[in-house]
User: Fold this.
Amino acid sequence: MRFWFRKKSSCQIAKDRLKILLISDRVNCSQEMLELIKADITKVISKYMKIDTENMDIQISAKKGISSLCANIPIVDIHKQCQAAEGK
Assistant:
């Protein structure tokens, strides 16, 4: 279990940021645009679930001319109204 909750080293964080920068240049997505996308995704998912925004990872990648968005969002809990709706 500790594997999933381990904090990233500053070296790994720097590598991740560099990857994001390089990929965003390739797909013409600025860092500001990526931050807006993250904020929108966080806002929508937060309506239904409590998420760990500190460890959230959203990336845009480009392979073979196709861009894709990959999100790793740790879910802490589901809001009670969503649990009640699932029970219906």
